[in-house]
Amino acid sequence: MDIILIYSGGLDSTTLLYHLRADGHHVAALSINYGQRHRWELVAAQRLCHALGVVHELVDLQVLRPLLAGSSQTDCTVPVPHGHYTDASMKATVVPNRNMLLLALAGAWAMSRKADAIAYAAHRGDHPVYPDCRPVFIAALREALTLADWHVVDLITPFAHLDKTAIVQRGAALGVPFAQTWSCYDPQTDPVTARPVHCGRCGTDVERQEAFALAGIPDPTEYAYVASL
Amino acid sequence: MDIILIYSGGLDSTTLLYHLRADGHHVAALSINYGQRHRWELVAAQRLCHALGVVHELVDLQVLRPLLAGSSQTDCTVPVPHGHYTDASMKATVVPNRNMLLLALAGAWAMSRKADAIAYAAHRGDHPVYPDCRPVFIAALREALTLADWHVVDLITPFAHLDKTAIVQRGAALGVPFAQTWSCYDPQTDPVTARPVHCGRCGTDVERQEAFALAGIPDPTEYAYVASL
Q1: What are the chain B neighbours of A112 within 8 Å (beta carbons)?
Q2: ipTM surpassing 0.85, yes or no?
Q3: Strand positions, DSSP E, chain A
Q4: Residue B38 C-alpha from the chain's centroid
Q5: pLDDT confidence bin for B79, thresholds 50/70/90
Q6: Per-residue pLDDT tens over the stretch B125-146
């Protein structure tokens, strides 16, 4: 199939990129700069696509910032919460309607290119905090997408029933260069190398560290702070 | 209710703006510059909102043009077809996934502002050509929208069961300044005043002229060409 992947440069969507290609699909990747605090992920996305020879469309939508106020990820006045994803405070990281926006853009590109499907790396661990990662949301959006154009585009989420530990295991089997993926919501600068490193404290970093530990796979990520799991 | 209206500055959405305000709702309007050939409509939208004191957010998404190739409305190499909307050739004017994109953006703004609903002026005459105006699409998208955030935003389409003639009649009763609304997909320049005028030949102009004629209401629009209905 010809697939448009919504691609953040993170652990989940990079593993999905490798997974789809290993299954023989042709994949083009779409990344969005919506003014996210962690837009270092976009550099990671570009580098990873370039290394694979994957077509990568990076769209600058920072003009949307006024519409997306109130999230710690788009509003510098709202601090990034620390701790595990299941904490209520993590709701501050929800970007309003982000997934519908990303899916609508990927859908537009897919319809324009006559691609067969769009894919994104929703997974089982997402649901408690992010309403637009829940299976009921995905099912409704998939229905809308298939009705939106005479050229029918499907929505596939191959990792919907996996947790992050299983994704790490799948990624390891596929040879995903984990050290080059970017998860952190609150990038820090390494005082020696002046390079960005994962903070190690935000929800996505805690989950990343936990997933490697539970998967029994060494975590190659540079963290400013390593959580005691 | 606090409502975000997807607002093009055209006849239908301007009548909906007046309709919602007459029903006592607080309305903020959202318009998108997606590089449409007929972006003169955005100037009309701004002027009409300003006259009413309505908050108007105009978002420049021309960066999306590469994703929306192949439509006569976003690709200058594709000519605007002439004739009635029901002609197959009018499919050239379909902008891929446009309505999902607009609804996703309006949804994001509504969630961010904690508004109650988003509204758009889908109407009965839209369906034959535009897949993303069909009631089945609207129902599926409404379902996805209400699931996309913990703050539930509804989607309302008060004109879904009206045709354009009925909308003109409703607009006339509400005192909509029709001459200031903009419908045309292929704006022409008046050779004397150098001002933009409706072409009179594109599908939306043919339908506009027809709706005024059927409604028995004088059409105040300046056309470069008047169709024989």
Answers
A1: 67-70, 96
A2: no
A3: 2-6, 26-33, 56-60, 117-119, 154-156, 188-189, 196-197
A4: 11
A5: low
A6: 766 677 888 889 999 999 999 9
**Residue B93 CB coordination number (10 Å):** 23
Q: Residue ranges per domain, chain B?
A: 2-176
Cα–Cα distance, B69 to B98 (Å, whole number): 12
Handedness of CA B147, B153, B154, B157 (dihedral sign): negative
With a cut of 80, say whether residue B84 has pLDDT above it: no
CATH number of the structural domain B2-176: 3.40.50.620
Q: Are A74 and A36 in contact (CB under 8 A)?
A: yes
Burial B182-198 (b: 16+ CB within 10 A, else e): bbbbbbbeeeeeeebbb
Q: How far apart are CA A108 and CA B99, in angstroms?
A: 10
Q: How far is B125 from chain A (nearest CA, A)?
A: 17
What is the Cα–Cα distance from A191 to A174, expressed in whole angstroms? 33
Q: What chain A residue is nearest to B153 in terms of C-alpha separation?
A: A97
Whether residues B131 and A112 touch (CB distance < 8 A) is answered with no
In the beta sheet, which residues pair with residue A34? none
In the block, tokens 């190690």 appear at A200
Q: Do A137 and B144 touch (CB under 8 A)?
A: yes
User: B9-29 pLDDT, tens per residue?
Assistant: 999 999 999 999 999 999 999
The letter for the amino acid at A221 is T
